[in-house]
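User: Hey, my collaborator sent me this sequence without any context and asked if I could get a structure. I don't really work with proteins. Can you help?
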Amino acid sequence: MVDRSRHSPIFIDYTGKRWRRIRRAALVVGVITTVLALVLVGTIVLSPSMPPELPLATANNKTIARATTGKPGAFTKVDRLRTAYRRKLAAAMKQYGTPKSRRPEDIPALNIGTGNRKPRTDAIVAGFYVNWADNSFASLTRNYDKLDWVIGEWGFFPANADTLLIRIKPQVIELLNSKPIETRPSLFLMITNYVVDPGKDSAAGKFDPEVVRRFLANPTARANAIRQLRAAVTTYGLAGTTLDLENFSDPALQSQVLSFAHEVHDAMHSMGKLATQAIAAGDPDSYVQRAGSINDKIFPMIFDEHYAGGEPGPIASQRFYATQARRFARLVSPSRLILMVGAYGYDWNDAEAIALHRAENFDFQETMRAARGPEQPRPRFDPVSMNPYMQWTTPDSTDHVLWYLDAATAYNEMLVGQALGVA
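Assistant: No problem. I've predicted the 3D structure and written it out in structure-token form, which is a compact way to encode the shape of the chain:
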């Protein structure tokens, strides 16, 4: 006879106690994992508090040669300065905030004024050519027939010499000579005190007032410069010259520059050519007036409201541009003014600020390249200044604030020129 008790199930719990214990244990484990998940999400979403602000201005008096390691926990002097500069960038951008949507009719129009004569439509369209920009020649090739004047940055004040450095681009001359005469723009030679140290990139140069002081104090150098300009204008069939001497506020040096401008003007007029000069928005009224009386045309440089060596902000807000344009039109006859329009940007970031004590210069192509970069920052338009900007952070934790000028700002600035009736 078979004993069936040996084959009965031994894991069946007819009382149900074991199943209740399993459910309680699963509930406890579920609660614990849920709490841990919430803590993890909270640490990701909520940013930690920033360290206290450091005295960046005094710490930046000395150049720091090396860059930060970027490694977590390596809180060196450079890391502390970068943290302080991030706070500085954030504080500077708080005043702009997030742009609010507004209907076009709700945006207040600026009272530009009309200058000393009625608006005109036969304005001079001028473009500046620089040898160091890769896209200059390609842009000139596409747009030469849309330009009335082309001003080439081809004359430079030397650091230690008594003659100008003349670097005319042969390809530009060949390009224009190959085109029909009726389509060729007038070509001008620009002389500047922009100095680049040997072996350095053009973006690292600066406008040096001391090279101007030394050069103009030498009568032989001045005579050589006039002779060189005459020869260049004759050889290449140029329409005249443009002086672009910047970054000086010494009244004595300003008088020397205007005296030299007068010599250039007389030399050009004796050949039936034009003499023009670029004037910064920060130059005093007396200097602007005297320059306007000497030269045939004046190029007001109405930008750098916020510049590379200063705080981040709009490069040329619409109110700033209109105010300065009215000022120039009051000091110089509008018929002598050709208002300049910028197309560039400044990238304020904590890496460049610590290493070079300044923002990084971006041309328009570099600005668009940044917008299409890996971080793809979203361009924003500040409704108060009417200037665009972008903000982003790179994988190495470098914070960027890039203000720039584009087609929209150029259009608004052109409206100012039309209303003032400038050349």
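In plain terms: The first strand starts at residue 126 and ends at 129. You can pass these tokens on to your collaborator as they are.
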